Amino acid sequence: MSDTYSRRLALLSQPEALAQLKHCLHGIERESLRVERNGRLALTPHPAALGSALTHGSITTDYSEALLEFITEPHPDSAQTLAELDDIHRFTVANLDQEVLWSPSMPGHLPKEELIPIGEYGTSNVGLLKHVYRKGLAVRYGKTMQCIAGIHYNFSIPDAIWTVLKDAENDQRSAIDYQSARYIALIRNFRRYSWLLMYLFGASPAIDISFLRGREHQLEVFDEDTLYLPYATSLRMSDLGYQSKAQAGLTPCYNELSSYTDSLRCAVSTPYPPYQEIGSKKDGEWLQINTNILQIENEYYSTMRPKRITLEGEHPVDALTARGIQYVEARCIDINPFLPLGIDLPQARFLDTFLLFCALQDSPLLSDTECPAATANFLSVVSQGRKPNLQLDRLGEQVSMREWGLELVEQMQACAQLLDNSYATTEHSEALQLQVEKLNNPDLTPSAQVLASMREQQCSFSQFALKQSLQHAQALKTPALESSKVAHYQELAKQSLHAQEQIEQQPQCSFDEFMDDFLAGVK
Predict the structure, then answer these.
(1) Which of 252, 257, 284 lies closest to 268, judged by CA?
(2) How far is the CA of 59 from the CAs of 1, 89, 93, 134, 256, in angstroms?
(3) Sign of the CA dihedral running 214, 218, 224, 225
(4) pTM given for the model
(5) pLDDT tens profile 263-320
């Protein structure tokens, strides 16, 4: 244990700091496809009973019209976050009619590409902008990619904790600059160690054959409908998932916030020849927002993002530049198809521990060799994480993934104890022990359990996923959501529909004029 890490742990063990630590905030965004009860992708519009996808704060859609996204408020206890996520699920399931939520991250059998519906957000200029962005994603990456689902885990550390650490370290930077620098340091450590999350929680070792649409691949045949890799943990996060040659050269540096925001500003203003060939418009119809490497900053597909809540009309990089990093968003987490919510409390407790560890542990700048090694380690684990004696690159030396994982979990024990002491529980330490068991026995990982279930039931990936989806649909109906909560979500749906209606009734310029103003703001 380094001196810096030990000193920070000791500081946060003091009663005043310990009391503040339980004000860390935790939020979850969970995506899930709507499917028919036979497992086929739902081609229906976003259900009106769920409200407006444009203006609802908790229930919206992501890329495809069928890809629901549930967003919790940030809560000081992960248990509260999961309780809210459970409420949102129960309300949604009760209003899906003959459809169900698809249980895993990877889609089942998909219709022809042109039949996959893109998210619709109404007739307002703001709604049309969201739709055109998704049209751009379709022409750049294909609609099939817009059917992948995941979990985004949001985490922040209280300002008071940063103040304690800043004062103890006698750091002369402003509070905002110090906090941003420390969040960037957290992200560097996340880049170093997030392969561990892929091993422990990766849950997409197999895919439906329709997903590849004839693309070249190195997958093996599981059955006539399913492709897989025997030791894979997360094909979703492999090079089969979101791929972009345009983004291949975009490697935002996480050595300081400004280098990150500068690289994104550059990407949203730098033309990319293949996108220029497609063009922004054809026959008067918008095909994509622009022909640059990124249409907007959110198109950058990273495993973690620094975040700041934006003001109305404000771009994310401008918010970060003006007011610094407020929280981080871990984006590489697969949906666990064995869990109705796709995630449970032990996993959340481990993620909290892992992220606090990344924040407190030493985090030197990523060197020119360590950066690609971190990427290579991540890709090795997603494609062959359960391979016996898998070796990873640690500062130029080959090391056993299992041994390195056990070392990291051991170093996290102190963070788990800190959080347990703060929340008056033992759940963080218990969550850590569960991960030790997975490192010692790969058969306990979700990815191994998916393949084991498919073999045991002698079924394809899509058949397995549908069975889980139907089970979860039933579990989320009993017990039914309390009537007061039903009324609450019905009111939110009603308010969101009214809000969209008001936006659409306001006088608006033409969409072309709106886009001219929007694009002027991107540059």
Answers:
(1) 252
(2) 43, 9, 12, 18, 34
(3) negative
(4) 0.97
(5) 899 899 999 999 999 999 999 999 999 999 999 998 888 899 999 999 988 889 999 9
